[in-house]
Write a structure and sequence with these properties.
By secondary structure, the protein is an all-alpha fold. The protein has 21 helices and no strands. It is globular and about 65 Å long.
């Protein structure tokens, strides 16, 4: 590809400025990005965690219910992005204010997505090192992190279009290997022993559902980053449900079945024991690649909002984010995955509850009633602190109501509506409305 074409591809993906109707894309391409995101290592890891604590039937229902909740929130949030043509951080600029969004939505997405990028980079590096070991080559972990982190980061630089191309190639291969893994495990061990390994639940269903929601809380909150390219609300619903629910359910169940069948709960060991380790490791690398491009891409968009960076500089920002993620990978962030998921699952979901409450209740779901607020909307900030704080205390075991992630969303949703109506017209809501053109002017 010549330099002119390369520049064209990079510039096709915007940072914080508004997407026009001519830039909209088919819902299928968005759905396929989500499918590629769902077919990932963290899904298999959670399946492995569930395998030792839940029956197969309970794993299925916890996954379906958890992701159904995520899909509902994603559709409500994704429609906002489609209606307005704005990414996730920009859709929060009314609920939190232009300045407030920098210290809530944008900052949280940056921290969380960069962390996920580090986890996935480390997982990919371990898979690559295993592949090299099979070939009799000792390869340093830190160098693998640098090489594969850079490869994933470059893909993210070129945005949604290149992510779609990568998924069209990688997803079928990943799906075939996962199905083979499940069939191989059942054929080797037998369905009877696998299904009867756990006969009663050691984990409560609300906790399992909360784990599922927490696993994907960040992706749900960032749905507008992709759905801003959807042409209609119906396209948002189709891209979200078909892109997320089937693939996520299959992946977690496959992770559980493979863990029970192989007796290994480490994903790299599970794949290495499938009888064709070289192929398995190659596909495992692809699995992390397809997901990690999205992590770097979303994190880069968040940083663009935080510092009002122009669209043309989004690729540079994405590279910087990738370098930070690679450093975290080398430092061993993947070793604290469970704790990381728990914290993200507590503090992130309330954000989407607030944005949904603002658009669908306060603005009645009408884009003409929506406008960014100058300064800080303290109602949004207070609602987030209360909802996220409540969920975090539940996660830490201080008390228990139902599901920390879901409880936090409900509290933030209800509190925002109440406080907004009580304080409407005061400076606590913000320092006045501005147009979308004014809000995105610095990005152009």
């Amino acid at each position: 590809m010549d330099e002119i074409n390369k520049d064209a591809v990079v510039k096709q993906d915007k940072g914080i400025s508004q997407i026009t109707e001519s830039e909209k894309r088919s819902w299928g391409s968005i759905a396929f990005i989500w499918i590629g995101t769902m077919i990932c290592i963290p899904m298999l890891m959670v399946g492995g965690i569930f395998a030792g604590a839940l029956t197969i039937g309970s794993i299925f229902w916890a996954t379906v219910i958890g992701f159904a909740v995520c899909c509902l929130l994603m559709i409500l949030d994704g429609i906002i992005g489609s209606d307005l043509g704005l990414n996730a951080t920009m859709t929060s600029t009314r609920a939190f204010g232009m300045t407030g969004a920098n210290f809530s939505m944008a900052l949280v997405i940056f921290i969380a997505e960069t962390g996920w990028f580090a986890v996935q980079t480390a997982t990919c590096a371990m898979a690559f090192d295993t592949l090299m070991e099979i070939m009799g080559i000792a390869f340093p972990f830190w160098l693998s992190c640098i090489i594969w982190g850079a490869v994933m980061c470059v893909t993210a630089v070129y945005g949604v279009r290149w992510m779609s191309v990568l998924n069209y190639v990688a997803v079928p291969l990943l799906l075939i290997l996962c199905i083979y893994g499940a069939v191989h495990s059942i054929g080797t061990t037998g369905w009877g022993p696998i299904s009867s390994t756990v006969t009663s639940n050691a984990m409560a269903m609300p906790a399992a559902i909360s784990t599922v929601i927490g696993l994907f809380a960040l992706g749900a909150t960032c749905n507008a980053d992709y759905t801003r390219y959807c042409r209609s609300r119906a396209d948002v619903a189709k891209a979200t449900v078909l892109g997320v629910l089937p693939a996520a359910t299959v992946m977690i169940l496959v992770g559980a079945i493979m863990a029970l069948g192989t007796g290994n709960y480490d994903v790299t060991s599970m794949f290495a024991g499938l009888g064709m380790p070289v192929v398995a490791m190659i596909v495992l690398v692809l699995a992390t690649w397809t997901t990690n491009t999205g992590n770097a891409y979303m994190s880069g968009l968040a940083v663009c909002k935080m510092f009002s960076i122009k669209d043309k500089n989004r690729p540079i920002v994405t590279i910087i984010v990738g370098i930070i993620g690679i450093a975290f990978a080398i430092m061993g962030l993947a070793d604290v995955l469970n704790t990381y998921i728990s914290i993200i699952g507590a503090v992130v979901p309330p954000i989407i509850g607030i944005i949904v409450a603002d658009y669908w209740v306060i603005c009645k779901g009408k884009k003409e009633l929506w406008a960014p607020q100058k300064g800080i909307n303290w109602v949004g900030i207070i609602s987030w602190i209360c909802g996220g704080g409540f969920a975090l205390l539940e996660t830490l075991g201080v008390f228990s109501v139902f599901s920390p992630a879901l409880d936090g969303i409900i509290i933030a949703f209800v509190l925002y509506i109440i406080l907004y109506k009580l304080l409407s017209g005061t400076k606590l809501i913000g320092q006045g409305e501005m147009t979308i053109e004014e809000a995105t002017a610095k990005a152009k």
